[in-house]
């Protein structure tokens, strides 16, 4: 059974600035909490076919490859070589201009949990809420980084520091 989780956030930064950050595919650690590094695999640094190897602070890792790409608008990645109990997992971002100084960024994740019917239940009860939390933190980190230029690191800043970044 495929599960889908979606979140969106309004950011006090231009759509162009936010896209520039997302399109720097080998630098996701600048806004993704808990991520130590994300070096590019191969020669392609952006666009369709670009790949990165994400290493978390706990030394777990995942590979991501862009499989859909609309320049200045959206992209979708397939995740592989991860330790989570997933058969498949995709994630995507979309940036939409709201005004000259703000935009909305939406994120979606589609995944299938291993273990058949038990996995489907596990997906509903555990994985969907967990992934929703990951999305919200990642989008908050993106907003903070776009607004301040500061790197997130292993945890998000306090709410009072995040608030000005959110529209």
From TrEMBL:
InterPro entries in UniProt: Polyketide_cyclase/dehydratase, START-like_dom_sf
Database matches in Gene3D superfamilies: 3.30.530.20
Record protein name field: SRPBCC family protein
Lineage: Bacteria, Pseudomonadati, Pseudomonadota, Gammaproteobacteria, Alteromonadales
């Amino acid at each position: 059974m495929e599960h889908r989780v979606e979140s969106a956030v309004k950011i006090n930064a231009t759509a162009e600035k936010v896209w520039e950050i997302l399109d720097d595919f080998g630098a996701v650690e600048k806004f993704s909490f808990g991520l130590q590094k994300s070096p590019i695999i191969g020669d392609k640094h952006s666009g369709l076919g670009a790949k990165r190897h994400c290493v978390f602070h706990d030394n777990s890792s995942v590979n991501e490859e862009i499989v859909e790409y609309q320049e200045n608008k959206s992209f979708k990645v397939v995740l592989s070589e991860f330790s989570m109990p997933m058969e498949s997992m995709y994630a995507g971002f979309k940036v939409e201009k709201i005004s000259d100084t703000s935009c909305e960024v939406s994120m979606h994740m589609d995944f299938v949990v291993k273990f058949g019917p038990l996995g489907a239940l596990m997906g509903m009860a555990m994985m969907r809420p967990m992934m929703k939390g990951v999305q919200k933190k990642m989008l908050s980190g993106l907003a903070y980084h776009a607004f301040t230029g500061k790197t997130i690191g292993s945890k998000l800043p306090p709410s009072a520091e995040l608030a000005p970044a959110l529209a």
